[in-house]
Amino acid sequence: MVGYSEEILEDDDYSGIPDDIILVPGDSTSMIDRVDLSPEFLSFIHAPFKDDFEADRNDTSIAMQVTLTDGDQTCRALLLGDLSNPTVRRIFDISEADSVAWNLLLAPHHCSKTVMYTKDDNDEDELDSELMGWFEEAGGAC
Q1: Is 78's pLDDT higher than 60?
Q2: 142 contact partners, CB below 8 Å, separation of at least 6
Q3: What pTM, to 2 d.p., does this model score?
Q4: What are phi and psi of 133, to 5 degrees?
């Protein structure tokens, strides 16, 4: 389970979830269905952040980097859900370069402009060139 919602853990359907399988940003795991798949699989959780649960539903999307390794070959997928620009920027701002590196990128929010653009001082859409540069730098860096 990924996230901070303590309310859902009070629901009968989720009340028995062990603490050791609840993941928050900054956590990583090599477990799937309580089976350790290291060193072939590793997932690093980027989001949702605790304060995102009060935001728009899309900002509660799971964001993660999945690393798959086969011998000396490694591939990293960066999966950013339906996150918008501020949250994706926050991920790049606080993350180590290795945790945002990717060979495969699932474009956040279906590659809509809510990721690539911010509002300028006149409330006009403006391309976030800095963020686009960060994506480019992280791509193929594996």
Answers
A1: yes
A2: 74, 75, 76, 101, 102, 103
A3: 0.84
A4: -65, -40
